[in-house]
Design a protein that fits this description.
single chain, 246 residues, alpha/beta, Spore Coat Polysaccharide Biosynthesis Protein SpsA, Chain A, 3-stranded mixed sheet, 26% helix, globular
Length: 246
Amino acid sequence: MTDRLEKRAMILAAGLGTRLRPLTLSTPKPLVPVAGRPMIDYLIDLLKADGVDQVVVNVHHLADQMEAHLAPLTPWVSISDERDHLMDSGGGVVKAAHLLGKAPVLLLNADSFWLEPSDANDTNIARLWSAFDPDTMDMLMLTAEPSQSTGHEKAGGDFVMQANGRLSRYREGLADPLIYCGAMILHPRLLGDAPREPFSLNRFFDAAIAAGRLHGIRLKGHWLTVGTPEAIGAAEAVIADFSATR
């Protein structure tokens, strides 16, 4: 993308966080603290560092707490309200389309983030913006090797990457599996014919794979995902080690 296009991002934060119970019975998943900070604040820092112009956050579970936490960031952050009807990941993006504009948009999962290496020339988000080619891509994902990740419970990986950066689904036995880091650039043309009902972003993933338009780049740094209470301690240990070496 060029610098003249406004950068917009959406944090997918409306999930119920059932695997993080009992913590999420009283706290929305994005506000569960990791190393003393709500998870979503790590993403906010990454977006600020990249100079993103506008951020949309969808809310559903314990939405009042989410809005109160984000209120000091208004109008940089706006809310897509799903209190009445949880729309799932894909449906949530479609519902928020009027807030996202017509340029490619950065999507982030609220329950994962990454630690940037101190010697990197560009942030991972900047690398995503720079590498996205709307002529050949519908989506560009940030991916990590299993050795670069903490908290990922799925055996193997999510995708495999060809030499030209195209992604396809990982199948058992394939070499060099990659994990989706919960961060990608999506072209809004995908939203035009999408259903106005709950559905998963996997629908877009599979369509883009079939068209040869799902691509990826590799993470620089370490990726953390916090899906269970036990994963919090593992993430905090990585953050402590990372901080000690900076």
